[in-house]
Amino acid sequence: MYIGPLVAALAVVGLASRGRRLWPFAASIPVFVWLSFGDRPRASLFGALHTLPVFESMRYAERYRFAWLLAVCMFAGHGVRWLSCRLQRAYPGRRLGAGVATLVLAIVACDLYAITRPIYRAAFPIPPLAVRKAAAFAEIAGLDGYDARGFRRGAELETYGAWSSHYPALLMNVGAVNCYETAFVPRRATPSTSPFYRGEVYLEDGDGSASTAEWTPNRLRYTIDVKEPRRLIVNQNYHSGWAAADGRPVENRDGLISVMVGPGDRSVESALGWAALMVVLLVARR
3-state DSSP: the chain helix, strand, coil percent, rounded to 5? Predict the structure, then answer.
């Protein structure tokens, strides 16, 4: 969380020059500083917030430092602007303000590099793991923790061990149902090792066949062959953001993605993300 004495001084200047106009950001700094102390103060704001839904899953109060640090850096930028404008008015035509601002930014960059370089040298001690990519996506129960020696039980307890195996799972083209999460996520997908596993895509009942044509985290496409209307089940956690490419409803079936298909269908495609992004852009434009 290092910002350096120069940034701190510029933030004070920025608060003095713009704090009244940007008072919501200025007021947020002491609130998030208070939160970042966690349960250490006798009057703990974090303790009160920790009783609310969603926030009860947040284990480390120190993460609130990012919120007030962002505001501090914003005011430091206003401090640089104030200094630059004052110099420009005092010495018109010399572009002194821009030069001093550039010098200040260079000093800050060098200071941050000197302080953080030794930290980052020790921050990533595990080299990329050599994993084998599966030909087709499948859900698995989960992966063990790992360190520089690879996957093994208890590796997460080592000083330089990883508790989460999300990234190796991504490289292996598998989905881990049991992951290391701080916030609870409903787990309805069935791992391939379960006796109840019916495949990554299947028809709920009746004759017919279904197979995966394309799988990405945001786009799913399946090839189907049915003679009567059937319900297609995808072994993925349902979320309301999923939508079929042709507009047909995507429904929740016991926590999984489902869609009705018929004899006229040869492929079904669903996408997540783009539709929601377009809605956000349209609302923002209005």
Answer: 40, 20, 40
What residue has token string 């200047």?
13
Q: In this structure, are residues 109 and 4 in contact, taking their beta carbons and an 8 Å threshold?
A: no
* 3-class SS letters over 204-247: CCCCCEEEEEEECCCEEEEEEECCCCEEEEEEEECCCCCEECCC
Residue 207: name the closest of 223, 185, 225 by CA. Answer: 225
64 to each of 37, 122, 165, 198, how far by Cα in Å? 9, 24, 25, 43
Q: Which of 215, 275, 266 is nearest to 240 (CA)?
A: 275
The CA distance from 201 to 160, in Å, is 38
- Tell me the pLDDT of the chain averaged across its residues: 88
What pLDDT does residue 130 have? 87
Residues in Cβ contact with 153 at an 8 Å cutoff, skipping those fewer than 6 apart: 144, 145
In the chain, how many H helices and how many E strands? Answer: 7, 12
d(CA 88, CA 99): 10
Q: Is 269 helix (H, G, I), strand (E, B) or coil?
A: strand
pLDDT tens per residue, range 78-101 = 999 999 999 888 888 778 888 888
